[in-house]
Write a structure and sequence with these properties.
Blueprint lengths: L1 H18 L1 E6 L3 H13 L5 E3 L18 E5 L3 H12 L7 E2 L6 E2 L19
Antiparallel strand pairs: 1-3, 2-3, 4-5
Length: 124
């Protein structure tokens, strides 16, 4: 009897834990979800990746339910959504021209992808 009660309390605790998690991101591509996961980890937010291997069930389950998803603790939801929004925002700055080869580069690049020359200092 005691083991049944222990099992029951474990289920209750897991149910409560499940309720304390919020889905903050999902995408059809595991690559996109892995990038979002890296953004959250870099921001110091613990997250859980779910449905990593569920694509094989597509057809038996609704399409979006088989997509990889990221969950965070309820308390971290706002921080996680802000971090993901910052990462998705267009980079600040202007295009720059490489002094080594003349290649036009977008502001997120810190060095030329073509010749490897260093870009302009940040904030310039």
């Amino acid at each position: 009897m005691q083991s049944r009660q222990a099992a029951g309390s474990r289920i209750t605790r897991l149910g409560t834990l499940e309720d304390a998690l919020k889905r903050v991101y999902r995408a059809a591509s595991l690559l996109q979800v892995a990038h979002a996961r890296n953004v959250l980890i870099t921001a110091g937010i613990e997250c859980e990746l779910r449905n990593q291997y569920l694509a094989g069930a597509l057809g038996d389950l609704p399409m979006m339910e088989t997509w990889p998803q990221l969950y965070v603790d309820d308390d971290d939801e706002t921080l996680a959504l802000r971090a993901l929004a910052r990462a998705a925002a267009a980079p600040a700055g202007t295009m720059w021209t490489c002094s080594g080869c003349g290649e036009q580069l977008e502001p997120q690049f810190t060095q030329c992808w073509l010749c490897g020359a260093a870009g302009p200092p940040r904030g310039v």
